[in-house]
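Schema walk-through. Below, the input block comes first and the output block second. Nothing else is stored per chain. Lengths vary across the set, and this one has 521 residues.
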Amino acid sequence: MTNIQKEEEWDAIIIGSGMGGMACGSALAHYGKKVLILEKHYVAGGMTHTFKRKKHFTWDVGVHALGEMGENRLPGKIISWLSQDKVKMNKYGDVYDTFFFPENFKFELPSSIDEYKENLLKAFPEEKKAIELYFEMVQQAGKSAKVHFFCRNMAKWAETLATPFLKGKLNNWIKLTTKEVLDELTSNEKLKAVLAGQWGYYGSPPSRSSFFIHAITIRHFWEGAYYPEGTSKTLADNILNIVHEKGGDVRLRTAVDKVLTEGGKVIGVRTAKGENIYAPLVVSAAGAKATVERLLPETEEQKKWATNIKGLSQSPCHLCVYLGFEGDIKKAGATASNQWFFNSWDQEKTLWDFKNKDEEPHILYVSFPSLKDPAHYSGDSNYHTGEVVTFVDWDYFLKWEETKQGRRGEDYKDLKEELTKRIIDHLKTHLPDLMKLCTYVELSTPLSTDHFCSSPRGAIYGLEPTPERFNCKDLRPQTPLKNFYLTGADVGTLGVVGALMGGVLTAAKIDKRIFSKIKGK
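--- output ---
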């Protein structure tokens, strides 16, 4: 075992360079902190990183649509501040999502709340009262998020005292599931399916998701969706600049094995290579569940706050098919708008049981990043990219959990080939002309998510957004273990922007001056 000098070289160590870790580290660096970010992957960025194949094709792994990136919106302001105005966001169209349901029912989600409401009223004119009440409820529940996260940045005892006075009806929005709210609003199953259609952005069906996260997600896109100009890679490239400028560092291929403690407080970390690195503060952006299960000393792992987090469920895992095209994909049916293909009106059908050879994926979420990025260069051959996501059960991949990437065996390769073919065959029924232009195909499984992001059970969004998750008072930036903090989506909300805000919330807990940025100043 190697020890770096016991004297603390860093003001803070952050475990993980996903959006939460980047945002936290960058925010602290903006206020003079010397931050060390440790990343197990060979590239920084977590779910915002990109990869390339055959020189012509570049895909993002987790950025498909970002809301609230306008200059007057808080997440947009935060991105501009952290990146020193170097990340440019492109609003990629008047329609950002398009639903395709059975019976040739097509529904477009426009970049305007008023047009969205108009589209719903045109499709369901007899449901005017329910639709208008729905928007009121989404507004109320969504706006309560500020109160919720303000309370989570208090000390736990202070939140307990403040809850009856500050949270009010917020607790009801958290406790109610999306299904309970929609069932109360209307008996029209098709309207409920359309209203719940964006569950893929938070991963849980209406019966399991808190209406709180549903409302936050719907409001998030009321002014449309954005994509980073120059691909999502520009996020890490620019947000991390300030870390280096202030004397910090981002070390790649450096997995953390354990958090080091002494005298009841955290003093640093031990890497997987046996290197001890010391700092007065340690922040884990590795996901709350992964942190308590894999990084804490055994004595701390058994404490109530940690077991409460371990008891929370993970969000589902996913398959993603990465597609490369040559030709005019717009003419063949591709759009900047994300395309959602549902094979049923039942939004409780989320996970594809691919062991049933006759079953098709219940949902295909199709994104074309090259059409969203004004900086994309398609070349003489008109190169473009697409991504196809569907959700599956982690248990089907358990047999390979202990295997190494690239060495999972022939049966795993055979399964990947089968899954790829079945997804492509299903996609061809929706976009037959487009698939004639496809020249490259590659599949990633939940094992990739677990390997590169250290996400237990390959969870795409970290903790599942259930009422239990948002009611867990142990899920907060500052842990009971002195000098140890959590950050990222699990202390914020789901997705890239949720992780962004979680990162800044944790930074503000460490340095109160950062609260001015959360207030939009």
